[in-house]
Amino acid sequence: MAKTEHPVKAVGWATRDPSGVLSPFKFSRRATGEHDIQFKVLYCGICHSDLHFCKNEWGFSQYPMVPGHEIVGVATEVGSKVEKVKVGDKVGVGCLVGSCRGCDMCSQDLENYCPKQILTYSAIDTDGTLTQGGYSNIMVADEHFVVRWPENLPMDIGAPLLCAGITTYSPLRYFGLDKPGVHVGIVGLGGLGHVGVKFAKAFGAKVTVISTSEGKRQEAIGKLGADGFLNSRDPEQLQAAAGTMDGIIDTVSAVHPIVPLINLLKPHGKIVMVGVPEKPLEFGTFPLIAGRKTMSGSAIGGLKETQEMIDFAAKHNVLPDVEIVPVDYVNTAMERLLKADVKYRFVIDIGNTLKSD
Ligand SMILES: NC(=O)c1ccc[n+]([C@@H]2O[C@H](COP(=O)([O-])OP(=O)(O)OC[C@H]3O[C@@H](n4cnc5c(N)ncnc54)[C@H](O)[C@@H]3O)[C@@H](O)[C@H]2O)c1
Ligand SMILES: [Zn+2]
Ligand SMILES: [Zn+2]
User: Fold this and answer.
1) Which residue, 2, 110, 164, 274, has most beta carbons within 10 Å?
2) 304 CA distance to ligand 3 centroid (A)?
3) Which residue ranges have their beta carbon within 6 Å of ligand 1?
4) What is the 290 CA–ligand 2 centroid distance (Å)?
């Protein structure tokens, strides 16, 4: 029988069932092991994956669930063998808290593709208990899965980099969309999309935002620095841009047409799916065949690359646009997220608004 009680008392906001409604929740965290870092959570971003998970839209949610995988705070206790940080240092945890550390993927710093990876919440930990995420006052994780937080990076604004940041940074890098001279399309201007635009611009690429919301045109170009904007509901605009892009990162969270996007690619162009709609997408193969195009997917990033991404963001001032909210606003935030009514990421001010008793 799995042990369910740990010695460290914790509080958070959890959902108990696929209604997805979150409410205060008392639970426990394990004692700090020799390789562990325990930290006081100060900020946690709200990712659309939290919403998919809360409502069991992917079919593998485990309850009760404290979501949150864009977690930033300050180390309060470190195990005797921890080398990465000391008490008082700023730290972050993203989507992963464990992996096998020995497989082919792990040995290439790709813990994100380890078959035994352990997600930050809604997963079974090595001791048989459920992992719980960052909508909580305290966190503990093996130092391997903890990121050192750069001194000059604000913790509130920077928190979304731990998922939205790495999820766009990693495919831009891996698929060679990280240099001047390449034309990158970013589909969906939400949490992931807006950070993707900022990273692609920081790499020197030409960036076109592809969105269903005409209202985002001005902001995409004027504020986020995109070079162009395509309204994906306007076939004429899409036709005019056909065959112009080297790569596309698709961040859309719901079912949407793919063929018009594939048509935007040059021959040998690549479309990388990072959004995870709850139902399958449909597409014919002709648009891929014509021009030997590639369709791929990408999941977050390994820990080495996550640290590299955070350091790059701090150095090049790649900062998410956030709306900071108190923890008791989280259900409203989820409703607004579903309606794409946020510019562009909610971050919960855990440190100042989550009561610890
Ligand atoms: N691959 C990964 O590792 C990874 C990591 C994080 C998030 N995700 C997934 O990426 C997706 C986006 O996450 P996010 O946090 O940026 O979400 P978000 O809600 O902030 O952004 C999603 C965007 O998609 C747009 N959109 C929604 N429905 C649409 C439709 N039918 N047609 C066109 N556009 C539509 C919204 O307007 C919004 O701009 C989610 O599915 C999330 O689960 C994947
Ligand atoms: Zn996420
Ligand atoms: Zn592994």
Assistant:
1) 164
2) 14
3) 47-49, 52, 163-164, 167, 188-193, 212, 251-254, 256, 274-276, 298-300, 337, 340
4) 33
What's the rounded Cα separation, in Å, for the pair 43 and 154? 10
1 pLDDT tier (thresholds 50, 70, 90): very low
Residues recorded for the chain: 357
In a domain, 261, yes or no: yes
Which pair of structure tokens corresponds to residue 66? Answer: 């404290």
Give a yes or no: residue 3 inside a domain: no
Band (pLDDT 50/70/90 cuts) for residue 356 is confident
Q: Give me the amino acid identity at 318.
A: V
Residue 237 pLDDT exceeds 80: yes
| Residue 51 falls in which region: left (phi positive, over 0), alpha (psi -120 to 50) or beta | alpha
Counting from 1 in the atom list of ligand 1, the atom nearest the Cα of 297 is 1
Residue 182 structure tokens: 């390449």
pLDDT at position 4 over 70: no
Residue 2 lies inside a defined structural domain of this protein: no
Q: Which amino acid is at 348?
A: I
Residue 238 token pair = 């899409």
